[in-house]
Design goal:
globular, 317 residues, 8 strands, 31% helix, single chain, 11 helices, alpha/beta
Amino acid sequence: MRKVIDPGKERRSINFIDNICYSHVTDLNGRPLDLYLSLMVCNGNSEMRLADGRDDEVSIGRQPLVVWINGAGWRGCDKNLMAAEVHYLAEHGFAVACIYYRSSAQGHFPAQLIDCKTAVRFLRAHGDEYGLDTEHVGVMGRSAGGHLAAFMAMNLEGYDSREWQGYSSEIQAAVDLFGPVDIPRLNEISERLIKEPGYRWHKMEETHEGALLGGDMSTVKERGRDASPIYFINDRMCPIVIMHGDQDPLVPCEVSEDFYRRLTEAGLEDRANLYILKNGGHGTREFFQPETKKIIAEFFDRHLKMRTCTEFFLNNP
């Protein structure tokens, strides 16, 4: 069969650029460690540029950026593990960077926060190269990544490395997906569970929060406050969306409830929105359904490019 069709050109090409080195650090043993990110961006017909030296797509200009931060209990995982689940943001006109940060076996807190801030500064420094709107940067993370996204939302000073000096790590919007934002609260839960027969861990240094903090476990609860964004709420905080499942077996939903309560008590209710997902567990499918994706995309629209995405989701169920 031969048939002529006219599919149009409404949807733009998305290019995936992998293994971009954004930072040179050391691990806990002092060994050099390079950190990498990947980038999804609508920046034209890359195939034609490579084959013919030109591009047949009209530029849509610089795109606002969303930095995606994976979780895995700060233990480390492939930076692209959940890239498919945030592809919808690239479809909607955001550049999306998926970053790897030091795991708890490679660095103790605040190494992870420092790495996330370094990634933002690197991307701002290379905005021209990748066509990024460096004035409008958001972050989104799940679980441990949600914890780091919430910390990034506080826009605190004092966590910037010497790399890419002169560029800001401040962000304009954040999404925290079921982040363990209160480390002492998790520490209390771990202390109770460790005493139960058959629990996966037998001592505090084996737990996620214990491995993250390292050092003397007798002071882990006190030091945990310094690693918890819930204790750093301030008026420099950017707008934030918090999502948590009401059946989360790992990070109790009450953690996010308390976070939101403290934000409202600090007078920041106009910058915070909490969504409780009915029957949602820890990273279960509810977090990546059309309704939740629409909430997140519209939130980033309002704060990073000031446009609505209702029509997009109506046409792309």
